[in-house]
Amino acid sequence: MDEGAALPRPFAVPDERLLRLAEEYGTPVYAYSRESMTRTVQALQEGMPRVDFFYSLKANPNVHICRALNRCGAKAEVSSAGELTVALEAGVDGRDIIFVGPAKTREELDLAIRSGVYAIVAESVGEILAIEDLAKHIGVEAVRLLLRINTSEEPDATEIMVGGPSRFGFDQECVAAEVGELDLDRCRLAGIQVYSASQVLDAGWLVAHMETVVSLAVDLSCEMGFDLECVDFGGGYGVPYTEQESPLDVANLFDGAAAVFAKWSDKLGSVRLIVELGRYLVAESGVLLVRVLRVKESRGKRFLITDGGLPCFTRPAFMHTSHPIRAVGVRPGAVPNYFEVCGRTCTPLDLLGSDVPLPDVDEGDLLAVHKAGAYGFSMSMLNFMSFDWPAEVMLTAEGSQLIRPRQPYQSVISVQLP
Predict the structure, then answer these.
(1) Beta bridge partners of 298
(2) What separation in angstroms does the CA of 125 have from each of 118, 167, 204?
(3) For residue 204, what are the CA distances in angstroms to 145, 196, 223, 263?
(4) Would you state the pLDDT for residue 28?
(5) Quick one: DSSP state of residue 273?
(6) 335-366: string of b/e by CB count within 10 Å (b at 16+)?
(7) How far apart are CA 69 and CA 78, in angstroms?
(8) Closest CA to 302 of 336, 350, 345, 349
(9) Sign of the torsion angle spanned by Cα atoms 80, 81, 84, 90
(10) Under a CB-based contact definition with an 8 Å cutoff, are residues 16 and 368 in contact?
(11) pLDDT of residue 189
């Protein structure tokens, strides 16, 4: 791969096919390219063969997506009983699942232990004691634990998870004393997990993070007296949403990771190395198709009001991010105007994109919101204003498969207690 290269993984679906999808399934509808997401996994596996990549289901918990990724080698990182159930239903072996989260309930821990997950990522002394007690009650001899560490790193990212006071994990300077005092019979310390940040686009920082985490894992295993079985680097690989953002330089990342693993080869041996990825695997594989309902102008601004928006795609308003938006089936080279692309709810927060360059479009035209495969359906306010929930479709070389049917508002509002 050339220096400065990014993975070639566009959502390459012809407009004619998108138009047919919108006619067949209605709008709004999420469409995901299975080829795009599986190609990403395969490229990562080739670039970092020493690493096991775990799909973070929070990005998109659809069972069909989890199954497609697992079939090409991705494992699963879950953070709830629901996500664990999805992973198991998708066919992921329990030995390829890790359970993460700052406050797992006893019911969730019980399910994780009984499902034989590879490891539970422990984030507090109280959680370790709960796991110890449950393991004794269930009759399980050993439960593998990874200790989540709140390091002193300072990432340059949108969501920073380390460096200061945090509800996540053990503070780096206290973990040995806090955990070393515990009398554990069923819990087996096996390694550490450090999730430092999300939406990281700096390959150099990610390589430095790997070096930091390996060094810390080796030091803690010696200080605390446990055999190092696993090092989990977290994830947070980012994707560019605007032209001002540069894609992650995977060539630099691959070379840097190989150098780190070679440097520490005598300590790592057969240690399992894990990277957790959600957004990076599925964001660019997905598109949200919405229909223009109204076109209007107000005080010098042009508005496109669509049947999408806040209820089915909350992320732009919640995270203050922009996604590429384009008109589907419009002749190339048309001179653009600039539009506010909105949803149809009764709040000015309902904005899919501002100053979006689009050719003149009419009511009934189709728009595609790209890079919508992650934190689209799963992060949305689906019940706000009681619209239909969007459908989800998987695109393959053979055709399309409905992987979540549209949920009519009648069925949503009829679910009431007697």
Answers:
(1) 301
(2) 20, 12, 33
(3) 29, 14, 29, 16
(4) 98
(5) E
(6) eeeebbbbbbeeeeebbbbeebebeebeeebb
(7) 14
(8) 336
(9) negative
(10) no
(11) 98
- Predicted pLDDT at 332: 66
**Domains along the sequence of the chain with CATH:** 61-277 (3.20.20.10), 284-410 (2.40.37.10)
Alpha-carbon span 319 to 339, nearest angstrom: 20
pTM of the model: 0.94
CA distance 150 to 152: 7
N residues, the chain: 418
How far apart are alpha carbons 290 and 27 in whole angstroms? 5
The stretches in the chain having pLDDT less than 70 are 1-10, 331-333, 415-418
Give the pLDDT confidence of 209-232 residue by residue, as tens digits: 999 999 999 999 999 999 999 999
Query: What per-residue confidence (pLDDT) applies to 415?
Result: 60
Angle formed at CA 342 by CA 336 and CA 347, multiple of 5 degrees: 150
Kindly give the pairing relationship between strand 29-33 and strand 391-396.
parallel
Contacts of 74 (CB under 8 A, 6+ apart): 41, 53, 54, 55, 281
Angle at the Cα of 76 (from 72 to 80), degrees rounded to 5? 150
